[in-house]
Amino acid sequence: MEFFSKGKIYNFMKYGRSFVLSTLFLAAISLVLIVTKGFDYGVDFAGGTVVQIKYEAKAPLDKIREDLAKDKMFAGAQITEFGSDEEIVIRFSTVSESVGQDIGDHIRTLLKDTGSFDIRKIDIVGPKIGSELREKGIISAILAVIGILIYVAVRFEWKFAVASIITLVHDITITLGAIILFNIEISLDVLAAVLTLIGYSLNDTIIIFDRIREELEETKNMNFSEIINICVSKTLSRTTITSLLVFFVVLTLYIFGGEIIHGFSFTMLLGVIIGTYSSIFISAPFLTLIGFSVEKYKAKIALREKNKIEKAKMRAMYEKGTV
């Protein structure tokens, strides 16, 4: 299946500098949001208690806030709707100091005058555990990026690795900025989505880089911009089909999956759009910005082939007993 004409070459590099500058501007705005506003950590990372309650009728939020305010345990508690008017979530930073104390029974007593309800879920995470989870999440993301850098450097060469890492950092930064902008809580689900996007974005980038490498080895063309246009155009249908497939699956999760996976699906939606855009318009132009030279690359290939031929000759001479 081809969405685009197989033989047509699109001039992506004509506006390559404009694409790079505009997307770097978005990345800069995202960095400002990260530094100034920061993340809204969920219970997984910040520690605290989350109680999910389902009412038979519309939840009286004002009455609930009024009744909970009578107990200092719920000072500063956040009470928000959870997918419908009948369902709410109560978040508060105080964790029960007594193992024997039942938060559910305590809330039932406090909210007995607010209507008929069921407590569906209670999650309690200590601040120390939350801090450890946050630290391990950051370490896992850093290790993933380092592993990618090593893999691409071995698979291609170090400038391809640098370009791929710049693209990944660009994708993650803009995605995190959008998460802050839309007030999405950073939870384990969101972290899982970010780590998934690292692999997804890299996959698209590697396919284009692999096509560029093949074109560099097969063609005598020294115009790197033309080579990029050819390679991106040839992989455009594949990139578009894959991205649309993932997009519609994640969109279905976002629409019908409910609030439980809202953070995961929203992050994936953003990441698929940003990752596809960067793979097509950003990753290859970055190679030109960091000074990739077709001449030096071809000279390196020629030297590698020469060494391979010399090794084959030496092996043949050794096998014949002439060495």
What does this molecule look like?
There is one protein chain. The chain contains twelve helices and four strands; from the N terminus they run H-H-E-H-E-E-H-E-H-H-H-H-H-H-H-H. It has 323 residues and is of the alpha+beta class. The chain has two domains: 12-40 and 130-292, Multidrug efflux transporter AcrB transmembrane domain (Multidrug efflux transporter AcrB transmembrane fold, Up-down Bundle), CATH 1.20.1640.10; 48-125, 2-Layer Sandwich (Alpha-Beta Plaits), CATH 3.30.70. Strands 2-3-1-4 form a four-stranded antiparallel sheet. 29% of the residues are buried.
Q: Tags for this entry?
A:
protein-transporting ATPase activity; alpha+beta; cell inner membrane; four-stranded antiparallel beta sheet; transport; Multidrug efflux transporter AcrB transmembrane fold; 2 domains; Alpha-Beta Plaits; Protein-export membrane protein SecF; transmembrane helix; 323 residues; single chain
Brief overview:
The chain has two domains: 12-40 and 130-292, Multidrug efflux transporter AcrB transmembrane fold; 48-125, Alpha-Beta Plaits (2-Layer Sandwich). The chain has twelve helices and four strands.
Q: Which structural class matches the secondary elements? A: alpha+beta
| CATH fold call of the largest domain | Multidrug efflux transporter AcrB transmembrane fold
Instruction: Give the class-level CATH name of the largest domain.
Output: Mainly Alpha
Distance between the termini: 56 Å
**Molecular shape:** elongated
Q: How many E strands? A: 4
- What percent of the residues sit in helical stretches (DSSP H or I)? 55-70%
The CATH homologous superfamily name of the largest domain equals: Multidrug efflux transporter AcrB transmembrane domain
The appropriate CATH architecture of the largest domain is: Up-down Bundle
The whole-angstrom Rg is: 27 Å
**In terms of per-residue confidence, which ranges show pLDDT below 50 for 5 or more consecutive residues?**
none
Question: What sequence of helices (H) and strands (E) makes up the elements?
Answer: HHEHEEHEHHHHHHHH
Q: Count of helices?
A: 12
The largest sheet is:
4 strands, antiparallel
